[in-house]
Amino acid sequence: MKHLYEDVYYVLEGRGSTQVELSTGEKHTFEWGPKGLFAVPLNAKHRHFNASGQEKALLVSTTDMPMVMNTFHNEAFIFDNDFDFIERSGKAKYYTGEGDLITVKQGNHMWETNFVPDLSTIELKSWGDRGAGGSNIMFVLADSSMHAHISEMPVGTYKKGHRHGPGFHVMCVSGHGYSLLWFDGEEDFLRIDWKHGVVFPPADRQFHQHFNTSQSPARYLATGVGGLRYPLTVDKRRSLIGLKPGENGAVSTSIKDGGDQIEYEDQDTRIHKIWLEEMKKNNIEPKMDNFNTT
Predict the structure, then answer these.
(1) Which tens digits make up the pLDDT trace of 250-289?
(2) Which of 3, 66, 37, 5 is nearest to 220 (CA)?
């Protein structure tokens, strides 16, 4: 198949392969397994194969298909269009699990590729602004406008609360924990417990905060439409990059400075108490003493 919308695939379970055929006749095939991440260049022919004759392969896809369908409302244009986006095909190594590190600034470093074999092992970069020794990496996949990034929380820690616009999907990659979600002015929190296989989308401008309760670092993947290279909307640019030269994205800028992040010292006093109870239940030593929590 081929089409004029973009996908980011995350492998939940099973093993298989994907074959991509470019307009030049060049073909690339890569094999994927659990916790693999990949994208196919726009409008390139491709097909997916399940490598097992007995077990299913389960993939989750984040896509801009609804936006494209609503824009053109013509299936023939979307699925039978021969326009060639060969410039998006990427280097040959992008189909083998290799890529290029593009250093920008803390929190915005990018890994450009088409295929990541295992998100649980890819090297991340420090992102101190989001709190408690966390790390992350942003992805540019098949030079698309789709967003994907992975973040990690060390054992005995949690991230700062923040909010942003709609369209982000959060998926646990490794470890386990929970997230609290609430709208400004609400008295109660919505709690979501997560492990590998769980996905949840924070709503538009809904505060949310992630907590590691496992005895190993916890990683989660966030996907959406509009990434660091191609933000698409003013809201995405404000959240990820900032609107002015040298400005940080709103998700890592304190609400006291006009951003959308709640610093530890400003969070609801119940939040840290709830987390301490979880640490006790899971027999984990808290490691937040140096981060001015309340």
Answers:
(1) 999 999 999 999 999 999 999 999 999 999 999 999 999 8
(2) 37
Q: Which residues contact 187 (CB under 8 A, 6 or more apart)?
A: none
Domains and CATH numbers, the chain: 7-94 (no CATH), 96-291 (2.60.120.10)
69: helix, strand or coil: helix
- Helix, coil or strand: residue 15: coil
In 33-154, DSSP assigns E strands to 37-38, 45-50, 58-63, 100-102, 110-113, 115-116, 125-126, 135-141, 146-153
- Rounded alpha-carbon distances, angstroms, from residue 234 to 6, 111, 170, 239: 20, 23, 21, 9
Structure confidence at residue 294 (pLDDT): 67
What letter does residue 254 receive in the DSSP assignment? B
Provide the pLDDT for residue 289.
84
Strand duo 199-200 + 169-174: pairing: antiparallel
CA distance 61 to 59: 7
> Who's near 137: CB < 8 A, 6+ residues apart?
109, 110, 111, 122, 123, 124, 125, 149, 150
Local structure of 182: helix, strand or coil: strand
